[in-house]
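Milestone M4 deliverable, item 7.
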Amino acid sequence: MTGHRIDELLDAKRDGTLDSPSATELERELRQNSAARRRAEEIDSLSQILDVVADEPPAAIVSDVMEKISALPVRRPGARVIRWFPRSTSGGGMVMAKKVMFGVAAAAAIVLISVAITGFPHMNSSGTLARLVRQSAHRRRRLRHPT
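Output delivered:
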């Protein structure tokens, strides 16, 4: 049995969620494996130590940490502030960043170029779109039922 599996079983036993087949497996492993017994003893002693420790830290530690935090500068001198949202203009509109404008322009150019190259099926009085649909259906039928 691997050390990871032993740790899983010991954790489940400590939490009270160990089922009976797993409990039998753990007991057998603890009888046969000295390394597993040592690991179980280590975890038991650590659990006992942690149970003794109080839930709240000592007041002296809290005050020392708070003093050190308050002594830290809020911002280094000369540090730049990153603004995630652009500032609003005096007219109330939002100023769009150059990178975003270039990105939108590039995306629009790609769409326009792809439509210009591939074309767009126009629906006019001669029924161009309907003819394309009929041709597509005819091709599919030929592929399914070759003559």
